[in-house]
Amino acid sequence: MAFFPTFETIIGHDSNISGMCAAIKVGKPGHSHLFHGPKGVGKAATALAFAQVLLCKDREEGSAKSCGVCSSCKKIEGGQHPDFTLVEMLEDKTRITVEQIRELSAFLSLTPMESQWKIALIDDGAQMNISASNALLKTLEEPPDQSILIINSSRPGLLLPTIRSRCTKTRFSGLRDEELFEIVGKIVKSSSEDIKQAVAMSGGDVAQAVGLCESGLGEERQRFLRDIEEIGSVNLSRTCSIAEYWSTAARFATMLLLLKAWFQEQIRGSVESDGGGESTRNWLSLVQWADDIMRQAMVVNLNRRLVLESVFIKLARLRGAKF
Ligand SMILES: [Zn+2]
Fold this sequence. Notes:
Blueprint: H1 14-25, E1 32-36, H2 43-55, H3 71-77, E2 84-87, H4 98-109, E3 118-123, H5 130-141, E4 147-153, H6 161-165, E5 168-171, H7 177-187, H8 192-201, H9 206-214, H10 217-230, H11 236-245, H12 249-274, H13 278-299, H14 304-318
Parallel strand pairs: 1-4, 1-5, 2-3, 3-4
Helix pairs in contact: 1-2, 2-3, 4-5, 7-8, 8-9, 10-12, 11-14, 12-13, 13-14
Zinc ion (ZN) is lined by residues 56-58, 66-67, 70, 72-73.
């Protein structure tokens, strides 16, 4: 990992981190944790930092600071510490499966190889299917002495109540734009203008903002603004070819974020010019409809090109096009 989080470098979540540090210092880090809060605010980063401190070989007694240089710290940074495991949804699956949870339970029941603890992180716990959740309950009911389980979730309401009630809950709050800006700036090398734009479009999600910067937001945004400006003044065939350009999987996600931010600007502009009259109502109804259909396109497998065509055609008509 190019940038490995530590308690000292994580931005925000100060009271959560000091609570964890206090528990580590007295040697009682707790067996089962639920880190919950908005997506992309640093729950996984905090869990990794927590694990690194607990597994560090050169940590001073009574301290909650990982040394960052011992073999253990290096292994967790490289994603290959034998006493740490990360369970997340596999690429070809739609949920975290019972087999993954059984492996996790077996892992936690083994004697640690290089440290005092076996630590597992489930990210995101709400992705467990029902048999996986039931399998996890057994481990939560009788956690092995040396085990620490951290479940991350931005949707804790979807976890079984019996799982929630057996965990120590730590709530993560959303980050302020300045905090996001600082975090993203440490990870990517984009210009501050691009980072600012990515943060504004990210909905508070660090990974989303980083992804936007890495996908060449600057150039894509210029192209988007040129394309969207044309819609309404060009013919149907050009409108469809713009939709086609933005319909590849990689561009589509960026497009949604750019379009969402652009729509918000249009609504603001419209409210300023007609005080919330007919034009604003037309924009609001287009945006609501477009939001719905594009969200569906991300979840179920709708044809992205057709979705974008229909959004652009409605936009063109709103701007007076006659097709
Ligand atoms: Zn260390």
